[in-house]
Write a structure and sequence with these properties.
about 170 residues; mainly alpha; 6 helices; rod-shaped
């Protein structure tokens, strides 16, 4: 098929292709995209298209297939968007829950003795090991370990009594 033959056929096909796109999407921009994509694909295949097969039925089938493909892409995008929103909501929810737990823990820490608070913070906030805490405080490592264990037990009791962490 020559370029002139193709241009003549393309002028006849274009309104049909636009109509298919409009019927499918009810949107002129999508219809234009479908028509252009179909004509581009036909242009690339022009040398292999046999005249007796008929370019019109082929073009119509191609346009419909392109509409379906575009619709599927839209569905995937919408699903991905919904999934991202859901994940964002879950992340926000988890952050809120974590903040609530931290707030409960801080309130519970205030109920410990000052010495227990200090040791607990050194161990868990400053991430010091027992030997470091012992050298800083002058308390034997064994006593530091026992005091930390007692503080943890108290925190667990305080938090479970208030309906907090379980």
């Amino acid at each position: 098929m020559t370029q002139q033959e193709f241009e003549h056929i393309a002028q006849q096909l274009r309104p049909k292709l636009l109509n298919i796109g409009r019927q499918f999407f009810n949107d002129g921009d999508y219809a234009e995209d479908i028509a252009q994509e179909t004509l581009m694909r036909l242009w690339l295949l022009r040398e292999r298209i046999e005249q007796q097969i008929g370019i019109v039925p082929l073009a119509i089938r191609m346009a419909k297939n392109l509409c379906i493909s575009e619709w599927r892409k839209q569905q995937v995008r919408m699903a991905d968007s919904g999934l991202q929103e859901q994940m964002a909501d879950e992340t926000i929810s988890r952050k809120m829950e974590a903040n609530e737990v931290i707030a409960q823990l801080r309130l519970a820490l205030l109920q410990l003795t000052p010495a227990e608070q200090r040791l607990f913070r050194m161990r868990h906030e400053l991430e010091m090991d027992i030997a470091e805490i012992s050298s800083v405080t002058g308390i034997s490592p064994r006593s530091v370990s026992a005091m930390l264990s007692t503080a943890k037990r108290k925190l667990i009791e305080i938090l479970t009594q208030k309906g907090g962490i379980q």
